[in-house]
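Recall that a protein's primary structure is simply its ordered list of amino acids. Everything else, from secondary elements to tertiary packing, is in principle encoded there. The following example makes that idea concrete.
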Amino acid sequence: MTMEWQEQLITLYLYVCKHYREGLWAYCQRMSNYADLKFTDEEVITIYLFGIIDGRTEITKIYESTDRHL
């Protein structure tokens, strides 16, 4: 049985949050003064990884697929 994309996304988000708190933050925290803080670092990482899992390898394609779900 395959997971629905919503379940897969939630599972990935929880996984990212757990590891972000345990030290991942030191490697991938946004350091820009101009960072758009509408999304947390955990959400940005999850969106990127979900795009890769979904077969999208270009940032613009990941953005387009994310924009569909907002």
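The helical segments are 5-28, 41-53, 59-68. The chain has a mean pLDDT of 82.
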